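worker-3 :: picked Small ribosomal subunit protein uS13
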Amino acid sequence: MPRVLGIDIPGRKKLEFSLRYIYGIGPTTAVEICEKAKLDRNMKADDLKDEDIQRLVAVLQSDYRIEGDLRREISANIRRLISVGSYRGRRHRAGLPVRGQRTKTNARTRKGAKRTVGVVRGKEARSAAKAAK
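worker-3 :: tokens ->
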């Protein structure tokens, strides 16, 4: 497994796909990086020589925000939205979908597990609801 900027990328996969294991690099960006570093995107990542890795690292550091820097930037943007009190910031704070998705039925990933609100009828159902709490 070659190590690029402190991240182990899978060695048995083609370089184009191995680069995607770095946070902030997707399909298009991976191909772009291979072209800029003058590397064959179909070669296996294990076949990279030291000078190839150095070229790759140089391209990544000069032209792209990845990993920690990108994560910090995204979290700072979210904190800014929350502090300004924008609609998107309020949705982030409430843990609801931010980009206009419906919430009446779906949105379980953001909202979490279902919680029954209201009256639970029947003695058995009531004891089951208490046990779930």
